[in-house]
Structure formats: structure tokens, C-alpha cells
Design goal:
Layout lengths: L1 H53 L3
Length: about 55
């Protein structure tokens, strides 16, 4: 009886750890997407400013 409880407890812990890993993976994927979006916007703003400065000739 005690061995069965220990096995079920270990299985439960493994299942919980896999679920939390997928949650963390989703958070990092969203973070990468947002990071790339912010970098693209910053580069576009820099190009716009540089074109305004050098375009007044």
C-alpha cells in the first residue's frame, strides 16, 4: 500500500513538472515575440529620424 502511494505521488510530481515546463515555454515564446516586435519598431523609428535629418538637403 505504501509503495503504491509513493508511486502515485511520484507520477503526480512528474505530471505537474511537465505542465509547468510547458507554461514556462509559452511565456518565453511570447517574450521572444514581443522582443522582436519592439526591436523592429525601434529600428523603424531610428530609420525615420535619420531620414528626416539627412533628407532636408
Amino acid at each position: 500500500m505504501k509503495k503504491e502511494i509513493i508511486r502515485l505521488l511520484m507520477l503526480f510530481i512528474v505530471l505537474i513538472s511537465f505542465t509547468s515546463c510547458s507554461v514556462i515555454e509559452g511565456i518565453f515564446k511570447a517574450g521572444v515575440g514581443v522582443g522582436v516586435f519592439i526591436v523592429v519598431i525601434v529600428v523603424a523609428i531610428i530609420i525615420f529620424i535619420v531620414s528626416k535629418i539627412f533628407g532636408k538637403k
